[in-house]
Write a structure and sequence with these properties.
4 helices, Gyrase A, domain 2, Cyclophilin, alpha+beta, seven-stranded mixed β-sheet
Length: 225
């Protein structure tokens, strides 16, 4: 992998951005998460937050900026052979009906049946890229392009915890009730985040997961008018 760009963000933050010289990939994401894990153990680091193929460090003082610019480059070089520990999760989902009110709309959008939407959603093995938006919300890659669906034009004020949704080319699970504009296709009964757990988030960057249908809804073909 090529050399990253490391630049300041505000007074006490640094961004590690490898994408100008390195193609976006899951291997790159794992590398950034490995670096973030190491940084969190350092006293002068307030937070280490992986994003989509980038990493932001917030430091406790401006005086740490020069040394951490060098340390980030060193960690990047050392991470070439790093292996991020990971787990695979199988998550049961109740699709459609009162559990996923947008399942019909997703089917109509693609002119396929709701059963096909479920089949396409449960077939892939997804990868956790990073945690964002809210504690425990995992951004997943691997959604079948045949069911990639635009977000709602007007987001909902309250999306129930456990809701499984599609937002553009990604799918994810809401860990807590919150506003949200993703297309809701199902629901799962799983605790994704608890401050009393170690780590607090069930899903971690580098993990993989698959969805399995629990009592799938069987309906007819929906075609656009």
């Amino acid at each position: 992998m090529g050399n990253p760009i490391i630049y300041r963000l505000g007074e006490r933050a640094l961004v590690l951005d490898p994408t100008p010289s390195t193609p976006i990939s899951m291997a790159l994401q794992r590398k950034l998460c490995w670096i973030a894990d190491l940084c969190r153990d350092r006293q002068e680091i307030i937070s280490a937050v992986p994003g989509m193929n980038n990493l932001t460090l917030t430091l406790s003082a401006m005086s740490h900026i020069p040394s951490w610019q060098q340390q980030l480059q060193q960690l990047w070089d050392e991470a070439e052979s790093a292996q991020l520990s990971s787990r695979h999760h199988v998550i049961e989902v109740k699709y459609g009906g009162r559990y996923g009110g947008d399942l019909d709309a997703v089917a109509r959008h693609h002119q396929i049946t709701t059963d096909e939407v479920i089949a396409y959603h449960t077939a892939p093995s997804y990868q956790v890229c990073f945690i964002g938006f809210m504690p425990g919300f995992a951004y997943l890659t691997g959604l079948d392009s045949r069911i990639a669906t635009p977000r709602l034009a007007s987001p909902r004020q309250n999306v129930p915890a456990g809701s499984v949704g599609i937002g553009g080319e990604q799918t994810g699970i809401y860990p807590a009730m919150s506003p949200g504009g993703w297309q809701l296709i199902g629901h799962c009964d799983i605790e994704l985040f608890s401050p009393n757990h170690n780590p607090p988030s069930l899903l971690q960057p580098g993990d993989s997961l698959s969805f399995t249908a629990l009592k799938p809804v069987s309906r007819g073909t929906h075609a656009a008018n």
